[in-house]
Amino acid sequence: KQEVTQIPAALSVPEGENLVLNCSFTDSAIYNLQWFRQDPGKGLTSLLLIQSSQREQTSGRLNASLDKSSGRSTLYIAASQPGDSATYLCAVGSYIPTFGRGTSLIVHP
Amino acid sequence: GAGVSQSPSNKVTEKGKDVELRCDPISGHTALYWYRQSLGQGLEFLIYFQGNSAPDKSGLPSDRFSAERTGGSVSTLTIQRTQQEDSAVYLCASSFRGLAGGTSTDTQYFGPGTRLTVL
Q1: Among A34, A104, B17, B97, which residue's Cβ finds the most Cβ atoms within 10 Å?
Q2: The pLDDT of residue B1 is above 70
Q3: Do A43 and B111 touch (CB under 8 A)?
Q4: Once rounded to an integer, what is the mean pLDDT over residues A81-89?
C-alpha cells in the first residue's frame, strides 16, 4: 500500500524566503506526482503535475522535482509571499492518487 | 469555463438520516473522483468513475456509502444512516482522461467540497 509523507507538517517563514517542501512515498511504481494548494475552507488547486518520465516541472516561482528511485519529490517556492500561505499537498498517482497530509505554510510580512 | 461544482456547500444532519451530495464535473471530463477529508487527516479516496466503465469502489468505507454517475456527467454520493464519524468535507474532482491506457493520469480539478456535519 502506497504511503505518502510530507515534511514539515507546518512551516512559518518571513516574506521573501526561498523554501522547500518535501514529499516522500514508499512505492516507486507511480504514474505521476501532483502538488496541490488548499486554502482554508476551499477545495484543492493543482499547482504542478510531474509525469513519471519527467524529473521536474516549473511554473512561475514554483519548481517541483521528482526522484522516483528514492521515492521523493520537493516543491521549491522562490521569494515567498504572504499570498503563498496555504496548505500544500502532494498526491502520488499509482492508480488512484494517494495524498499526503500536507504542509501548512504561513508566510508573514 | 466553469469549474467543478458541488452542492450543498454545507450540510448538517442528524445521526441516522440519509444524505445526498452532488458533484457537477467540468464538461467533457471523463474521470470523476470522490474523496473525504476529515479534520487533521489527509484526503481519503472513496470512489472513481471512468467514462462508462464500472466504478472503482475500493475506497468506500462501508456499505452505507454509494455513488452513481448519470450520463457520464453529474455524480451523487449517498450516505445512508449517517454516523457522527461520517462528519468530514467531501471533495469531488474530475479530470479529462483519468487513467489513460494504464500509463498516466492527468491533472485533477477539485470542487470546493461539501462540509457534512452529523449531530
Answers
A1: A34
A2: no
A3: yes
A4: 97
CA distance A19 to A37: 15
Helix (H, G, I), strand (E, B) or coil at B86: helix
Q: B-contacting residues of A 11-30, CB under 8 Å?
A: none
Side chain identity at residue B28, one-letter code: G
B45 strand-pairing partners: B35
Do A54 and A64 form a contact (C-beta atoms < 8 A)?
A: no
CB A65, CB A73: distance < 8 Å: yes
A100 inside 8 A of chain B by CB: yes
Residue type, A3: E
Average pLDDT of A38-62? 91
Spatial strand order in the sheet of B75-79: B5-7, B19-24, B75-79, B65-69
User: How large is the C-alpha radius of gyration of chain A?
Assistant: 13
- The pLDDT of residue B33: 92
What are the chain B neighbours of A99 within 8 Å (beta carbons)?
Answer: 35, 42-43
Across the interface, whether the CB atoms of B107 and A101 are under 8 A apart is answered no
Q: Is A87 on the interface with B (CB under 8 A)?
A: no
